[in-house]
Amino acid sequence: FTWGMKLRLAPLAEGGVILSGDFHPGAVAIAKRMRGVYLSAGKAWRVQGTAELVRSNLILELGLAEDQFEILDTLQELLADGSVSPVREVTSISLGGYSPEPTKSEEEVSDSGIYLASVPSIKNTELTNAEIDKALESFSLMDHQPGGIRHLLQRTSALLADDMGLGKTRQAVIAAGTRAQGKPVLVIVLNSLIINWQREILMVFPQAQIALQTFDAQASWIIVNYERLGDFVKHASSFAVMVIDEAHRLKEPTAAWTRHGFDIAAQVQNRYLLTGTPVLNREAELHTLLRLSGHPIGQLPLNEFCERFAG
């Protein structure tokens, strides 16, 4: 069945396109016939030909409609680590859907490319220590918390890695609310913590309008769990701040919620990552978080990052 099927075509500057989206055996057959290479980690195909040609072949053979396709209007380039980045400007690439079970021939032509949207680099904000201290006068805080809030507010993106029980949630709520200045804030959390975050936001900002698990243009805060992130990619440009709780959940670059998280982060200028365990097993896990934050070290290819920083 092809009803409801969605596909995305991302033109490459060096020629060809990246085909991604919902899995269908007919689409796989067409990609193979066009000498496509299956990129297992990114769950996508690199196909020879123009986006228009690939779309035309899929429409003719599968009976798809034009509105089932999205063609990115910005040329993409493949980076050394297998990621894809816009040539001219930041845009997002979502690589959802399911990958086919690889056959032996597919494994022989597969690549290990990991396609994640390019995220804006960290920049210093205009806020001074004096301005932040004045903004914090109305809040009740523990001694260490002003420093954490200052750490978040003086950068467009930052990681807060305080240990459990030290109040990362309150620090992030105050920083996000201050930075957003009335514009919407997206909070990404574990499903079991949605109510906790709602309660904390209302304790800090009693008049806040909060939407849970759905986009509401009237809400100043929207709380969503990781599994629902794909529904919010199309609304990403609406958010002034993105808060990611338990950010270590995004350590696996091939997970759907990681790709969706990058798609959203590419369009949100202010990004706050919270986790008490940024590294669970090995140093390489930190690479994805650095990349998501826009830190310069995160721009290193993964193999170079591991050579320089992993034991």
From TrEMBL:
Alphabetic keyword roster: ATP-binding, Helicase, Hydrolase, Nucleotide-binding
Gene Ontology biological-process entries: DNA repair; replication fork processing
Xref: Gene3D superfamilies: Tandem AAA-ATPase domain (3.40.50.10810)
Domain Helicase ATP-binding: from-to ranges: 149-296
InterPro entries the UniProt entry points to: Helicase_ATP-bd, P-loop_NTPase, SNF2-like_sf, SNF2_N
Gene Ontology MF term list: ATP binding; helicase activity; hydrolase activity
Coiled-coil positions: none
Pfam families: SNF2-rel_dom
Protein name, entry field: DNA helicase
